Predict the structure.
Amino acid sequence: MNWTWFHRLASPPYVYGLAARLTPWFAWPAALCIIAGLWGGLVLAPPDYQQGDGFRILYVHAPSAWMSLMVYMSMATAAAVGLIWRIKVAHAVAASCAPIGASFTFAALVTGALWGEPMWGTYWEWDPRLTSELVLLFLYLGYMGLRAGIEDTQRADRASAVLAIVGVVNVPIIHYSVTWWNSLHQAPSVMRLAKPAMPLAMLLPLLLMLLGFTLFFVALLLVRLRGEVLARERAASWIREVVSA
Amino acid sequence: MRAFFDMGGYAAFVWPAYAVTLTVIVLNIVWARRSLARSRAEARRRLQTQGQRP
């Protein structure tokens, strides 16, 4: 097998160009999926038999919560690759993930609170699922604070990578919190081994939103990655070409 | 149409949830573009100071 494509992914000028070319291929499909998902979720999906139209918060809450975990796993994986193989581009990927993940964790918490009040009678409860998701927000903020506090990029990369990797223990806790403990939060109804527990007209908009958010994450990551790659390169001749254009 | 905006009585919860999420989406686009522009400006400045050196 030919591994040159893999080695090229560690080359900053190659990654910078590739990221710029790939961005629209993720951004536009993301926009289409999210618009179609919004239409499906707000207009086409039937009201829930128990929660009426209140359940429509699902279409923004579940994708935000999915982002909070998926972006964290991407960040920690990239940080581990950067730490083990000393690949600068991998650290740049990890650093790009953090603000995206933090913002969607915030969205998941706020939309969850807005769903909790009418259905459970409270915006917030120190419940295992809610608390572990809040810890995730603090992990993201701690990661960003740590990076901002260290002047030298290489040292910031290494120190923040350790924090990101240690924080991975929180991810299964969030995911399984609703099965391990008594939680106000409902059990998974889509991401489970059995068949999803909702009709297709409800499920399809949700899948579109999940796909759209994921594509949106990749597009954002590609834009941020270019900035992070530039910040890590000193006096390389390729930079002159890309910034003068 | 009014029924749509009323969201079966849940309007006060459904619409703020959508508003917060869409705001996060838009802010992410603005922040990502701004972060790239800042890095490019920074790199350009570095190249200029290097060019001035003998």
Notes: The mean pLDDT of chain A is 93. DSSP finds nine helices and no strands in chain A.
